[in-house]
Amino acid sequence: MRLEYTRDELLTSHAYEEPLIAGDVLCHGGFIGSGYVSPRTLHRLPAIGAWQDRLRREGLPLLNLPTEYVPPHYPSYEQAKYLLQEGITDPITRSLTIISIVEGFGARIRDLPLPDLHATFVEDVGGTAIAHLGGGLVEAHARDEAGHRREGGHKQMWEAARDLGLSKPELPGDILLRMMMGRRRPERRREFPELPAVTENLVAFLTGVMIIEIVAEDVFEWAKALLGDPEVCRQNRAAAAMVAHIQQDEKAHVEYLRTALSEMRARTFVGADGTTHVPGATVVDRLFEVGLRGIVSTRPREDRERLREEIHAAIEDRAEASRIASRFEELDAGWTFPKGEDEKLDLLLETAAAPR
Ligand SMILES: [Fe+2]
Ligand SMILES: [Fe+2]
Questions:
Q1: What Å distances lie between residue 318 and 66, 104, 171, CA to CA?
Q2: Phi and psi of 196, rounded to 5°?
C-alpha cells in the first residue's frame, strides 16, 4: 500500500463521463456509469484508506464521535414539513441558505497556519495523513467546500438543492446581516501553554472541523428527507440527489481528519522549549472533548433558542397564528446533550479493526 502521494495526485479527479450541473452552474465531481463520483478522490480516498490501514496494522485506534452526541437538526423534519405545508417557507429558505454560506466559508481552511509537522512530533511522520495535510489534503477540502476556478462546490450545490426543492424561493434580504450580527464566540482558552500556539491551534481547529463535519451528517439526513418529500417539494428527487452528492463528498473530509488526529494521538508533541514532551493522546483527547462540549452542547442550545424565536416571529404574521404555533411546538421532540457538565465523555475511539 502506497503511503506517499504528491499534491497533484491528491487533487486529481476521476475522468468523468458526465459533469455535475447544479441549476445552471457547472460543479465539481461527476458521473461514471450511473453513479456520482466525488471530486479529487482518484488518489485521495485510496491514500486515506492506506493511512488507516497502517494504523490498523500498528494496532492503533481511530478517533470517532459516538452518534449519541450528535444533536438533531432544528427544526426537525416533521416541524419543517409542517411549516412548508402551512406556506411558511422563509425559515427553511433561511436555514438552507445559511448552510450554503457556511459551506463557502470552508475555503478558509486553506489559511490555517501549519507548523513544521516533522518538528512538531518526536516520532517520524513520513507516510501519514499528517505529513500530507499541507500537501493537498487541506487544499482539496477547501476546494470541495467553496468550489474552485470555474467549478462550483458545496456552496453552489446547496443553493441548487434549495432552489430545486423550494422552487427558487425568494431569499430573505437580511440573511447575511443577521449572520454577521450573530454572537461572537469567545476566544478559546489555551489548554497546553507548554506547546507552541500554532500547534495547539492546529489540533483544536482540526478537531473542531471533524466534529462539525460529523454533526453535519444529521443535517444531510434532514435535508434529504425534507427536500425529497414530494408532498412539500417540487423537484424533490433532483433536490435530494444533490444533497446526497454533497454528503458523499464529505466522507473524504471526515476520514482524513480522523486519520490525521489518530496519528497525532499515537505520537508525542514537542513543546515550545524543544525539550518538553506531551503525549499526543493527552492533547488530542482534551481538545476533542473541549471542542465537542462547545459544538454539540452549548452551540445547539443557543442556535435552537434563536431559531425558535425567528420561526415564531414568522408564524405570528399568519392568520391562526396560535394554532400553527402550538402545532409546531407539539412536533418538537427536543434534545439535551446526554452528559452533564462535569461528567467525563466516553472514550471516543474505535479500534481500527475493520474498514468502514
Ligand atoms: Fe461541505
Ligand atoms: Fe466538509
A1: 41, 33, 19
A2: -60, 140
207 and 284 Cβ atoms separated by less than 8 Å: yes
Asked whether residue 10 carries a pLDDT value surpassing 60, the answer given is yes
pLDDT tens-digit readout, 123-135? 999 999 999 999 9
pLDDT tens digit sequence for 181-231? 766 677 789 999 999 999 999 999 999 999 988 888 889 999 999 999 999
Distance 81 CA to ligand 1 centre (A): 24
Q: Where are the domains of the chain?
A: 7-335
Give the ranges where the chain is alpha helix by DSSP (H). 7-10, 44-57, 77-85, 90-105, 117-120, 129-132, 138-146, 154-165, 175-181, 197-227, 236-265, 280-293, 299-316, 321-330
Cβ-proximal residues to 129 (8 Å cutoff; 6+ apart), any chain: 47, 48, 51, 137, 256, 259, 260, 263
**261 Cα–ligand 1 center, Å:** 19
Query: How many angstroms is it from 321 CA to the middle of ligand 1?
Result: 36
